[in-house]
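Quick one - first record:
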Amino acid sequence: MYAIVTVLDLFPKLNESNLLKDLTFDCGLGDATQGPIPHFSWFGSEEIDLQGVQTCLNKFGSDNPPFEIITTGLGIFTGKQPVLYIPIVKTRKLLEYHESLWAEIRPYLIQSNPYYQPDRWMPHITLLYQNIMPGQISCSVDSFINYSFDLTFPVDHLAIAYTDGIHSNMPYTVQLSGES
């Protein structure tokens, strides 16, 4: 599975409030910092044309300046594999970047995940997923309920991320360097 992602420096912001301690000890979730690297995904696809995607990312990076995203609240994707996440506010700038990037990269995605299409995309930062018991979700929500998730993060790069379920890596990153 491939994704186009932006990595975020989330843990220092969560450590300021001892939130990670609450998750680790109170909810029995182990070390929350040992999970996936905090990020949000622009796209997901089973396979990609790596050279085509790299070419698109290079052009997009040189044409577009960095910007900021903001988050607020807490969300849960329900189902057999629930996900606890921080929603990213869908600003006009974020939507324009996503739509533009989608138009450029879509031809190079093979079996793309439909949840990343512009009309369905819900940008978010995953906090918890995989093998979470219902009691752990409710404990986590209890821990988070008084925490403000009104955070700001720079978006200054795009990376290709890959995972096979066991191994993960980011073989390619491009900086956003265009003029404002």
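second record:
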Amino acid sequence: MSETARLRGRGKVRDIYEAGEHLLLVASDRISAFDVVLPDPIPDKGRVLTGLSLHWFERTRDIVTNHLVSADRRDFPEPFRSEPSLAGRAMLVRRAEVIPVECVARGYLTGSGLKQYLAEGHVCGVPLPPGLVESDRLPEPIFTPTTKAATGHDLPLTFEETVDLVGRGLAERLRELTISLYERGAELALERGIIVADTKFEFGFAGGELILIDEVLTPDSSRFWPADGYAPGRPQPSFDKQFVRDWLDASGWDHEPPPPRLPAEVVDRTARTYREAYERITGERFDHYRHRMGILSDRDWETCAVDLERLRRELA
């Protein structure tokens, strides 16, 4: 990135730059697990996250306004407009005052929700029927917010604790929007053969308006399961980074820095899984997204050259 670009903040995956009256949100290929950034990037992961967020922003804007201004690099101010590496992985967005709550919706019993249910019979203060097993579909989606920690682990919040943080009116609105967004996403994803087990959203205020920010229904913010073969009572295969989590657990890592290096086959399989998630949900080949955003790899150029030569011969 040009030295004239001013970095405003850096998260586990995203970098935020000052961009005049707006901000530029850049999704890197970094991957985190158990709140630790791993040393090995996943090729094109940031573009998958951006492409899926764009897909969902378009399909949820009737529920809530979002922060997107443009993902077209030609609309970016300099020096970003001249930076080819940003194509397909960056969004020009409205500035917002971020609400310090991760808004989580759960439709199935898994992950930390399963652990809390087995220990306490509820998830974030939401009581659930007895006798549920791993991966069970819940009677209805539930709102299970967490703290939004700058570093370290997010902590679960009950609804009343959320009220204490942001006020009752805003807490109720966040719960309403979170469930509505989850239900929309889960319904549309299921049509594509994907179960959205759970997901998280972030919100902020821009010009006094409550808006949806950050990413939406991506493999980083959600658990995606293939619908065919779904069976409660066991873990489900996934289209997210669960494969990386599982490998890290099997490696014996204690979830504290420094993390181990990922084997090449884990990196490759994870990259393929992210791309497959994009293709299943959008119904579009990921290469088409890359081309539409103006990204051509060396292999793409070779393929295009062969196609052009074949066309030239056919027209001769």
